[in-house]
Amino acid sequence: MTRRREIQSYLMDMDGVLVREEHAIPGADAFIARLRERGTPFLVLTNNSIYTPRDLSARLRAVGIDIGEENLWTSALATARFLDDQRPGGTAFVLGEAGLITALHQAGYTMTDNNPEYVVLGETRTLSFERLTLATRLIHAGARFIATNPDTSGPTNRGPIPATGSVAALLTAATGVRPYYVGKPNPLMMRSALNAIHAHSETTAMIGDRMDTDVVSGMEAGLETILVLTGLTTREAAEREPYRASRVVDSIADLLPDLD
Predict the structure, then answer these.
(1) Rounded to an integer, what is the distance from CA 94 to the centroid of its chain?
(2) What is the CATH number of domain 84-181?
């Protein structure tokens, strides 16, 4: 669809590209194994901020895909790096779970509800009205509002559930303040991932299953973009978007010849 580049490193989404409903997508294990054999730098990206890279690595190994935690990049890690760049050693009130809290601690942040510099919202399954109220009051008092990602819903085996973007909308309605989203489709997440593996946008490809997050953020960061049809986007839906992926393939297995 566009001029093919020489690809020397890869970024890729996880759900819909490597796994689907807790099952490995055929060919995903072989693609990752080939990258390892070649010594090709890569990172698996996810907007999910609940889990630490160690948790996600264990989840992937359980379905037969061997990816170490050093090859996983979450919106929580990207958010922690962003905040460390903005205000090193800062303070935050966090609505989130282990993945986000751990990443912020490792970045040198202190968690507090006493005049924090930031309110940081991530994915969570344990929200309470009390903590939402406190977050609302802290934002009203001047805390800067950051969210890991704008996804409004997430998939589960029993159907969709509200996600970070939905909770952010509630807090915005209560405070009049919109958050700054760090995760996809913000190309900042792509650039932070490139920096993490010392890769260059001109020689890196982004593999994803969504046009509105994976492809658009990869495109805006200057990467080659590859849409796979094993997730949420159909070929017809992709054609309706005002922008195009560099390539559209049925699945990640179709990319194996690129690594020969």
Answers:
(1) 18
(2) 3.40.50.1000
Query: How much of the chain exceeds pLDDT 70, in percent?
Result: 97
Has this prediction a pTM greater than 0.85?
yes
List the chain domain ranges: 9-47+184-259, 84-181
CB atoms within 10 A of CB 232: 17
Report CA torsion sign: 108, 113, 114, 117: positive
For CA atoms 168, 48, 190, 106, the dihedral sign is: positive
pLDDT score recorded for residue 153: 84
Question: Would you say 253 and 27 are in contact if contact means Cβ atoms under 8 Å apart?
Answer: yes
164 closest CA partner among 123, 197, 217: 123
Residue-wise pLDDT tens digits, 130-160: 999 999 999 999 999 999 999 998 766 677 7
- CATH class, range 9-47+184-259: alpha beta
Show the tokens assigned to 39: 């010594």
Q: Which residues are known catalytic residues?
A: 13, 15
Asked if the domains 9-47+184-259 and 84-181 are classified in one and the same CATH topology, the answer is yes
